[in-house]
TrEMBL record:
Subcellular location: Cell membrane
Keyword Transmembrane: yes
PANTHER family per the UniProt record, alphabetical: CHOLINE TRANSPORTER-LIKE (SLC FAMILY 44), CHOLINE TRANSPORTER-LIKE PROTEIN 5
Protein name from the UniProt record: Choline transporter-like protein
Catalytic activity: choline(out) + n H(+)(in) = choline(in) + n H(+)(out)
Keywords tagged on the record: Antiport, Cell membrane, Glycoprotein, Membrane, Transmembrane, Transmembrane helix, Transport
Annotated Pfam families: Choline_transpo (PF04515)
A single MF term (Gene Ontology): antiporter activity
High-level lineage: Eukaryota, Metazoa, Chordata, Craniata, Vertebrata
Biological role: Choline transporter.
Membrane topology: Multi-pass membrane protein
Family: Belongs to the CTL (choline transporter-like) family.
Amino acid sequence: RHCTDIICCVIFIVVILGYIALGVVAWVHGDPRKVIYPTDSYGQFCGQRDTLNENKTILFYFNILKCASPVVLINLQCPTTQLCVSKCPDRFATYIDVQASYRYRPDQWNYFRQFCKPGFNNPRKSVAQVLRDEDCPSMIIPSRPFLKRCFPDFSTKNGVLTVANQTTFKDGRGKTRNVTDLREAANGINNVLDARSVGMKIFEDYAISWYWILIGLFIAMMLSLLFLVLLRFTAGVLFWIFIFGVIGIIGYGIWHCYWEYDHLKGIPGSDLTVYDIGFQTDFKVYLQLRQTWLAFMIILCGVEVIIILMLIFLRNRIRIAIALLKEGSRAIGYIMSTLFYPIVTFLLIAICISYWAVTAVFLATSGEPVYKVMANQTLCKYANLTCDPETFNTTNVTKLCPGAQCTFAFYGGESLYHKYIFIFQLVNAFVFLWLVNFAIALGQCTLAGAFASYYWAYRKPADIPLWPLFSSFGRAIRYHTGSLAFGALILAIVQLIRVILEYLDHKLKGTQNSFTRFLLCCLKCCFWCLEKFLKFINRNAYIMIAIYGKNFCTSAKEAFFLLMRNVVRVAVLDKVTDFLLFLGKILVAGGVGVLAFFFFTQRIPVFAQEVPMLNYYWVPLLTVIIGSYLVAHGFFSVYAMCVDTLFLCFCEDLERNDGSTAKPYFMSASLHRILGKKKLSPKKA
């Protein structure tokens, strides 16, 4: 063994150190309280104790039309002044109308000015100056709080979007606008609001049923282990029962089609052709034609013949596939620790996800309120320069530029860090994908090394190393970190491109350019296929790395050509394995799901008194079913890796050895018998 892909290993380590540095910088500049607690344009949290905003817990946006989406609002990137208020507006009003009527309707002004900047009480100030200085909003609209922020109070009336039963409103700048203009600023908010109470009930159900959910998942784990053990004895039986069941069902279909074809003989109109009657929306009409049943019968006969011919010509390869499945169950029986390795992979991926999410939140909340000088005079040299509102009145700016104001401009910053926050978010996503793929690659290489040590043992289990899983893990980390990182890097690049394509597709969904949509669809399809192909190549490359210790490119090339020389065996083994493991997942998830259904619906008399009182019994039920499927998938992924490793070892064994005393086969006796050899050559001690 020697270190492989050293350059990629060094780059990987440097990237990890840089990723840690990025997280530290984000944590220094970011403040996640901005996501939980709204912040006004002065950088103060709404509802913060011992401040003027202590009793003002809700954030109000001066011009919500400038906000593109709720996500932008929550991340405090909406380019409008924000103010902490004690309650949201409950009526339509504009500053123009309120100013015109404040003398004889002072109550309207008193209500409106609570949404103006603190201390502002000058209704005589011209509308242009008020809007320029952003002393007050140009309009207020009926709103309700969501995530402690005021959003338009949308509702639908006869299928028409309304706010307070109105479809239009005045924007305070002399225009009448439709409420649909507010849709993008609060898209989907009402659905989330309606789901809040449901979410609380679901949380309560989890709080009182988590113990029983864990019991259900433990039962799923035991059933998964039992299924893997039984595969050693039942793999062939389950497969052949399924195959002959399919043949029988198709045979019945052929007989039924012939019966319908013969039964329609002599009935008027049944001898017409499909061409004669043309296209009909009622498809039952076609079932009255003999030609339809004849076509069905011919198709089913073709499928039946193809399946029977495949069984005849591929029978030996099917037997090899079943023997490898049994051998995989036997290998796991000798190395039981491999079944619990997915927990390590899960923990590594959980750490990656947590670090990525926390870093993303801190990056998103790194923006600070930026204030700029807004001057009446176009020749003011200080115009559009940043300023500090607390010290602005003490500077000479107001003297040199009369009427100049230090007003809120946007959230962000003008430092190098703030200018490249979007790039940092992309880097954060890319390194996250790289690390997740590396964790998966490490797991695959570790398991492959453990199972390869089983196959290449002369005497099983006597020659299997004492700690095969830990030894394989140590080799993968010590010698092949660079190779695993190289394979993960290639996959991460493709996945990032897919994420970008999905983002572009989402943004261009409303466009009428059919060529653009077609091009995006083609690119998404191509990169999806490329990702699947790379995952297949990487998986087998990691197996070859675990066996021979070569670099990634050499291992990928040798694995690919080895599989191509055994392409039929690959196809047969893949389908047989997929079927049996899918059947196992369905049996485990379905069995535990049925048991959970009877338990949570109090249909098991013995445990009827133990069932917790739930708002929705389907909450723990779905959790148990999905969790059981994931538990089974975790165990069966080890089994699939075992079978793939044994298969590559089997193919290598056939090519490198001939069964002689000098070059004995390492395969089991059952596989040797299937190959048609008279006896297994004695193996060296």
